[in-house]
Write a structure and sequence with these properties.
With 108 residues, this protein is mostly helical. It is built from six helices and no strands. Helix 1 (4-19) crosses helix 2 (36-47) and helix 3 (51-69) packs across helix 6.
Length: 108
């Protein structure tokens, strides 16, 4: 059986998968009936990663997948992931991947 902390992490991961496209790029800890601080501390203890890192990895994984497996424009991919604009998407992607979305599509 899972410990209470492991259960919180599993439920958090499920919520991330369902809601990572939401515009806030954050999750409401109340959905897990715990405080934000408790969620962040528990996730960090169990996974070694922050909540933001986990959400960002899902967003980046989806972006990479769309860049490689579709002919959608970068603008359309940015829109599908609910970024405010394509410029912000480009900066966000580059921060986590080290290259622009176009560079990734062509060379990544």
């Amino acid at each position: 059986p899972l410990s209470k902390s492991e259960l919180i992490c599993r439920n958090f991961a499920q919520l991330v998968m369902q809601h990572y496209i939401d515009t806030k790029r954050s999750l409401d800890a109340e959905k897990l009936q715990i405080t934000h601080a408790h969620l962040c501390t528990t996730v960090k203890q169990i996974t070694g990663k922050t909540c933001v890192d986990i959400i960002s990895s899902m967003v980046i994984m989806d972006a990479k997948s769309q860049l490689k497996s579709s002919q959608l424009s970068i603008q359309n991919i940015s829109d599908s992931l609910n970024f405010a604009n394509v410029s912000f998407f480009g900066k966000y992607f580059k921060r986590y991947v080290g290259m622009s979305p176009l560079e990734y599509r062509n060379n990544g």
